[in-house]
Amino acid sequence: MSKKKTSIQKFYEGKVIFLTGATGFIGKLLLEKCLRSLNLKKIYILVRVKKGKDQNTRLKKLLESPIYDKVKSLNPNFFEKISILNGDLTCPNLGLSDEDIKILINEVDCIIHCAATVSFVEHLSLATKMNVIASRDLLRIAKKMHNLHSYVHVSTAYSNMNRNEIDEIFYESAMEPDKLLEMIKTFNDDYITDLTPKIIKDFPNTYAFTKNVSETIIKREGVGLPISIIRPSIVMATHKEPLVGFVDNYLTVSGMAVAVGLGLTRTLRLDENIVFDIIPADFVANQILAMGWNNYRKSKSAYQSNNITLYNCVSGYENPIHLGYMINLFLHACHIFGAAKKSIWYPFLLVTSNETLYKIYAFFLNIIPFYLFDFCLKIMGKKPFIMNIYSRFDSMRQLFDVFMTKQWYFHAKNTNQLYNSLSDDDKELFNFDVKKIDWPKFLINNATGMKIYLVKDTSGESGLKKLKRLKYIHLLLICLVITVLYYSFKLIYLVLR
């Protein structure tokens, strides 16, 4: 931390923050950034018991992440500023006890609401509880707070994905919140399951749909609060902070990239010409903290209004990258750094935007080889597993299919204005300037990060040797297939003469 404090650092000096979603990817980065770059008094985090692990166990596990190594070296006692509150987004008032709610009301200065279910296949009832009702309940708690200076709500750039062009404004709600809540309360889950396609209509998943409705909740309930909404696009690995290329989940892009890198898929359905809107995870965290500072600044302005500002946290507006170019860079990175120990095939990719052609490619390049692979395992007395892994990957691919075949246009005027309003020191410490991203370097670092942090592989020379072996096998099989096809067609020709 620099000796001379920046404007953002001065704002957060001695503040108490309530952060939800601290165990998620963005939440982890926010927690680390707050502890490393800000001199907070305290940070409350909402943690629930999960898979038999209590809050303290989950916090200990959370702080084992390598992203906290830097702050540990700067301040070994950093964890003393973290206080855990037991909660659950599926329960009223986020599952907080009356005593904990009183603590928040009396102590908290800033709220960052990151928590949500990001699953595309979440049941509508559960997604509504976690993304809509929890947001509403937290807003109602916030209205009772004695010293609230800022509230940042994390939404998604795809909360209005039923539109092609998305500005930093509120749009008409996909469904009246009260109507949705009454429906969830009245009908059982099985009936809701049957109704879901009719309810979400133009939205491909319950995540985007409920995020849309939650924005309407904020528009109505957030009036008078120093609140703003951030809408990140597809979140990728970190750009620089606190580690270069850090990623900790297989969601969406990361999962498919790992599948390609390990040779678990050799074809994808996508449109190479679309601008694929991605954003580094640390840029999202930095912008959230800058928005918190700006919320307070706006609330004290003589020209303040009750308007809630929305920020599209996107890259395509200023620094677009096309999906085809991104794929080629990733494959280039795979070939530079070598194969992982878990790789089963030489990484290559045949792409098409045509659904029928994709199915043909998938049948010959994925399904037949994997069935043969599993068949050989079974003969050797081993348990088949490749088709099972591939099936899970293909299910994920289908859910993400719309993002790789449809083009959206996002405006980011508010985000640009926010960044330009920062001092030079704040721009350096809380960077989210997408114009300066070097995409080739970023994506190569991203590929390296996935290999290290997701696949847990640090093979160097051995990885390059394995890649070379896989390449020879790959070329040999291509020659074999071409030879078999040549003589098969020749034989058919001779028979039919």
Task: Give the CATH superfamily of the largest domain.
Answer: NAD(P)-binding Rossmann-like Domain
Mean pLDDT: 89
Count of helical regions: 18
Q: Report the principal-axis shape.
A: globular
CATH fold assignment of the largest domain? Rossmann fold
Protein structure class: alpha/beta
Query: How would a textbook summarize the main sheet?
Result: 7 strands, parallel
CATH architecture of the largest domain: 3-Layer(aba) Sandwich
Labels describing this entry:
single chain; 497 residues; alpha/beta; Rossmann fold; 2 domains; lipid metabolism; FAR_C; transmembrane helix; membrane; NAD(P)-bd_dom_sf
The gist of it:
With 497 residues, this protein is an alpha/beta fold. The chain has two domains: 7-321 and 404-452, 3-Layer(aba) Sandwich (Rossmann fold), CATH 3.40.50; 461-497. Helix content is 50%, strand content 10%.
Can you describe what's shown?
The chain is of the alpha/beta class. The chain has 2 domains: 7-321 and 404-452, 3-Layer(aba) Sandwich (Rossmann fold); 461-497. The protein is 50% helix and 10% strand. It is built from 18 helices and 13 strands. The chain has helices at residues 7-12, 25-37, 55-62, 69-74, 98-107, 124-142, 177-186, 189-200, 206-221, 253-261, 281-299, 323-337, 355-379, 386-400, 413-420, 424-429, 439-454, 461-496; strands at 16-20, 42-47, 82-86, 110-113, 150-154, 165-166, 227-232, 234-236, 267-269, 278-280, 309-313, 350-352, 409-410. Strands 3-2-1-4-5-7-11 form a 7-stranded parallel β-sheet, with helices on both faces. Strands 6-13 form a two-stranded parallel sheet. Helix 6 (124-142) links the parallel strand 4 (110-113) and strand 5 (150-154). Helix 2 (25-37) packs across helix 11 and helix 12 (323-337) packs across helix 17. The longest helix is centred in the last third of the chain and has 36 residues, at 461-496. Belongs to the fatty acyl-CoA reductase family. It is found in: Membrane.
